[in-house]
Amino acid sequence: MTISLKPSNSPQEKLQPTGWLKYLSFSLDHKVIGLQYLVCGFLFYLIGGSLAGAIRVELISPLSDFMPREVYNQVLTLHGTIMIFLWIVPVVNGAFGNYLIPFYVGARDMAFPRLNAVAFWLIPPSGLMLITSYFINGAAQSGWTAYPPLSITTPAAGQIIWILSVLLLGGSSIFGGINFIATILKLRRPGLKLMQLPMYCWAMLGTSILVVLSTPVLAGTLILLSFDIVAHTGFFNPSLGGNVIVYQHLFWFYSHPAVYIMVLPAFGLVSEILPIHSRKPLFGYTTMVFSIMGIVVLGLVVWAHHMFTSGTPPWMRLFFTIATAFIAVPTGIKFFNWVATLWGGKISLNAAMLFSCGFIINFVLGGITGVALAQVPFDVHVHDTYFVVAHFHYIVYGGSVFVIFSSIYHWFPKFTGKMLNENLGRFHFIITFIGFNLCFAPQHWLGLNGMPRRVAEYDPQFQLINQISSVGALLMALSTLPFLWNILQSILYGNEAGDNPWNALTPEWLTSSPPPVENWEGEAPLVLEPYGYGEKNSKNTQESMK
Amino acid sequence: MTSIVPKEQSSERKKDLSIEEHEDFRLFGLIAFLIADGMTFAGFFAAYLTFKAVNPIGPDAIYELELALPTLNTVLLLVSSFTFHRAGKFLEKDEAKQCQKWLLITGALGVAFLISQMFEYFTLPFGLTDNLFASTFYALTGFHGLHVTLGSIMIMIIWWQTRIPSGRVNNENKFPFEAVELYWHFVDGIWVVLFIILYLL
Ligand code: HEM
Ligand SMILES: [Cu+2]
Q1: Are B162 and B178 in contact (CB under 8 A)?
Q2: pTM of the full predicted structure?
Q3: CB under 8 Å to A73, separation ≥6 — which residues?
Q4: Distance between CA B118 and CA B125 in Å, rounded?
Q5: How far is A412 from chain B, CA to nearest CA, in Å?
Q6: pLDDT tens, B151-180?
Q7: Whose CA is nearest to atom 39 of ligand 1?
Q8: Is the pLDDT at A12 greater than 60, yes or no?
Q9: Quick one: which of A59, A109, A210, B127 could link to A257 by a disulfide (CB 3.0–4.6 Å)?
């Protein structure tokens, strides 16, 4: 009996809206939902990016009054919140996960298509709600961390809206995580073993485990925080006997894993892209899988490295330093595996590859400063300075955003059936890479020399460096233009891509571009060696030579 | 084309999923959801215990917490887990009438729990905002009560579905029933932990 598989198996239901209109409707097709995530996320990225621009304009001079202090704090808070909860998390998980995972497990859709659509449609309203809060009584101004007592004592309206929308976005990401777990573990095509799945599946499995274990804790914490604001309970209010440190523990129990929720899927995507464009098998598949799971486990036990200056007792500091340092091991394994995958390969330096290589470089730098930050004496020195800002932008921008661009260049032909212009893409990469490093590398220096973060005014000695940083930000903003132009041109006049322009072996390329509603005509292919490029004895040799 | 296993003889897509595998992945999703829900409680428990460790003057130190009602509540929930199980047994045997009876009892026990908790709230000498521990107390029991409320509503829906002829819950389609049952056992389990942490520790 197969009848009860209605949602994923009844084409009538999926086919209802046609043309581009389907992207504006409640579709149950995982491919449509994936692209909805992607485009929606990108729109929020443009908003969040404009806010970053505003911050950088304010910081051009030590005492500029581009915006009032209160507005600066609101802009800073919105920027951080939008970038994390509305851009990176939905895109690296929701967009690419929804699009690719059903292909990778050989299914026609996600396990719970309706839940999937609901998860996506929670995002635009909560995002808009967050932004409108700026115009109603002012947005939240306590940073994306919403530390009490600041978040309790600043005007309530904006903070409550902030909490509500983060709760909804958290719910969306939990629904997504549940869906991915069920899809990867239980919807696999018969005959496909776990250890034959493309690496992105493993990354998404690990990420989803993190989502399911840690996001609910954030939700609970924010509910308590909202009680503090609305009902004047005293959970986190020291003047009522509450304890702000408990908030920090609970918050970072989510928010440290959140960085892995942002980078693990990016690791997975890079692991798909590198082998294809260097025509070599992914190096060390098994170690890659174990390192992902190692990162998941360790990621859950290191949260208090964000609290070294919060009066944590020495034994705790020692424990969290050591645990954090250990994460460098699985991460290092992944790094060396990527390099080994590239080593001696037939590398084609197209835009997708360039962005992936850019990711590897930036991520190493961000990782090194991360290990440095895990050392208590060093952290005490640079805590809450621009060093931290530089570090996490190397991870989230240099890591995740670079991978998002790489993935767009790589999968755009699949999404649309059209090729992007490679030269424009390379140009986009160069501007982004220069702009990014110009913007954030100098901030290490700022931090080491004591410029605090989250300030609108600073000591004049930092002016020159801040201006360099702002120029970098301007370059990054400009780099979006060739990208958007490229997309537009390609959709209008792009060359036909064909089904498999990269000669790839992973399953999504074994169907037409864009794929039919049911993913494959006839039976789903059984791909046992997604990375069998160029090996002598590989079953896939003939395939990849074609 | 060696990487792609050739189409099986049958051109039909009959191999997509069998009904058992189908149930299987729904159960998987449900378990993942319950783990997530459990983590919310875990966060609350952790917060409560830390508050208590940092500042050990809880309501139980200032006031004597009455044990009578919460103990009664524990019994109510444990019995209801058992009655739900009975209902499931009858569903398997296709004895709709018996199944409905036991479901109704389960639902009634859930509602009784909520009423008894109301009573407890009215007799407590402290209010939500009195002090940190009063707040945590109400947050925990209230959040759990919300779960019991939702569970009771779902039990009633299941009950209704087994009653009407066109209902979607029967021996052929047990999943909704099993899902609610698993959820209910989960909520009971949380209560036992909560009871120990809040009233006994
Ligand atoms: C488009 C390029 C970007 C620029 C120029 C930029 C710039 C900035 C600046 C100047 C700050 C203020 C730092 C401070 O005063 O503490 C900041 C904060 C922040 N940014 Fe970005 N950013 C960019 C992209 C991103 C991305 C992609 C993310 C993704 C997660 C992100 C996440 C954050 C967060 C979480 C904060 C901290 C907000 C807070 O302290 O509450 N940024 N950014
Ligand atoms: Cu961390």
Answers
A1: no
A2: 0.91
A3: A141, A142, A143, A454
A4: 13
A5: 24
A6: 999 999 999 988 877 777 777 788 889 999
A7: A143
A8: no
A9: A210
